[in-house]
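I have been asked to look over a protein record a colleague put together. Thanks in advance; the entry in question is below.
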Amino acid sequence: MYWAVRYECTALFYLILSKNFSNSVSLSFHKTLSKMKNHLLIFFLMLSGSFAFAQKTEYETKTNIRYYEDAEYKNDAYKAERCILDIYYPKNAKGFATILWFHGGGITQGSKEIPQALKDKGYCIIGVGYRLSPTVKAPAYIEDSAAAVAWAFNNIAKYGGDPDKIFLSGHSAGGYLDLMVGLDKKWLAKYNIDANRIAGLIPFSPQCITHFTVRKENGIPEKQPVIDQYAPLYWVRGDAPPILLITGNREMELLGRYDENAYMERMMKLNGQKDIRLFELDGYGHNMADPAYPLLLIEVKRVLDIKK
């Protein structure tokens, strides 16, 4: 109850400050709310703290687990370095949900991570590493992401998790990889897994057109938009898992990032997807992960409640 109350309060707070919630609110009042942001957050967290109770769940972390077959790593030092994952999970628990987290960094930098904001919430968190450009080129990093997701489906039950409660999330490049693996079904089909088994896709500020690094690999300028096989938008379909798109403010985000997500939401709906939403977090640019984490947790809870 403690964590549920804490994060529902925090998520409500951020929704109040988002454009999706506050379009009908006067501009002056919206600015006042923005100024009160830090004070309100402190209040919500102090209020929710009064609900803490009982013994904390114990968690265990295992690091640097290979998600490809061992033979894949022979004579490939770079794959051995990058294609590994960390898993953080509740001990002595059964049937818990799992969130795979793909780090950002433009597919050119970054490393696997388990965000602190997602710890100690009753879920398993898997931090995924993947190969980077320019050492490799597309689709290598998409293949890596799919292999990590397949590993979760095939192994999470050994740790106590439910393979029917696997969510994909990540920031920026990580969000792009979420959508590519979740929408283009061929990547998981390689492992005899239907991408529709994914419980939900919750990308933070994902690229929905062809990623700018993929374009760069092919000599295409950053400001020339492309929608091809390496664009999540190319794979819009009505039968996809539930999707929550989260971006920063449209005027503060990376080039057209909000607009890409808005178009993704629109085209998914036109293709029959009934469970897709877009949240625009006002006051934040591309570095919008902190206010997005509570929304991620609330979305996981929402989907799990539907599945009951």
The mean pLDDT is 88.
